[in-house]
Amino acid sequence: MTSQANRRPHVLIIEDNSDIAELITYYLSKAGYDTEILTSGTGAIQRIQSNPPDVVILDLMLPGQNGLEICNALRATPLTESIPLIMVTAKAEETDRISGLEIGADDYITKPFSPKELVARVGALLRRTRSAQSPEPLVNYGPLKIDLTSHTVTNEGIEVQLTAKEFLLLCYLIEHQGRLLSRDVLLTDVWGYRYTESTRTVDVHVRRLREKLPILVTNIETIKQFGYRLASYVPPLPPKTT
To answer: Which residues constitute the domain of residue 143?
Structure first.
């Protein structure tokens, strides 16, 4: 019987173009992944909830429910909200990429694409998701408590739901707090590869972190045309006594 540690990662491919789906399957299988194909958005959410995969590769334009609707539904459900998700589409406009990222996609690739690049992105996303393990599993940043084992974040004791990439970006910013980080550095170190598309990917994820974690609204400083810096946390001074 195969142990959990030795289990091949399972990738669910939701793509209505059979040629593209088979091509992705071929390259992922060669790289050591188990794959499954759905050719319609109909029933995709129920399928993912019944047996969550390690990664979802999701086409934007699908019969039945489209990719944006599926992504939005997955991120709104506790069981599936942290599943790593890569969105694939023939639409190359920046607005389409940003829409996918804004509702919780961890990555985005446009057709036509290199199957080897997609495999590399799947591997990088899995490594980054799993690498947030530490001998010291708890990290604090002000009112935030980050559990690196369970991949959970609480703000003043209340759990806040983050996607896999949001969690990794938060951990990286806290680990490097006080340092100025360029968008290129963040893309390379957090996303795990030299990203060749718009660096708006970082901006979208930072904005989502600010929306979910109020302390980051002012503590993440935007450095115009360069990147970001998370201020080192300084505990507030105790009130003066008279």
So the answer is: 138-230
What CA dihedral angle connects 84, 89, 94 and 95, to 10 degrees?
-90
Angle between the 18-30 and 115-130 helix axes, to the nearest 10 degrees?
60
What digits encode the pLDDT tens for the residues 49-72?
999 999 999 999 899 999 999 999
DSSP for 18-41, written as a single string: HHHHHHHHHHHHHTT-EEEEE-SS
3 state DSSP class of 147: strand
The DSSP bridge pattern shows strands 34-38 and 55-59 to be unpaired
Using CA atoms, how far apart are residues 189 and 167, in angstroms rounded to an integer?
14
The 3-state DSSP composition of the chain as helix, strand, coil percent (nearest 5) reads 40, 20, 40
Examine the pLDDT at 106 and tell me if it is beyond 50: yes
| CATH number of the domain bearing residue 198 | 1.10.10.10
- Give the span between the Cα atoms of 100 and 73, in whole angstroms: 12
Q: Are residues 142 and 86 in the same domain?
A: no
Whether the model clears a pTM of 0.90, i.e. scores above it, the answer is no
Q: Which two tokens stand for residue 31?
A: 């790289």
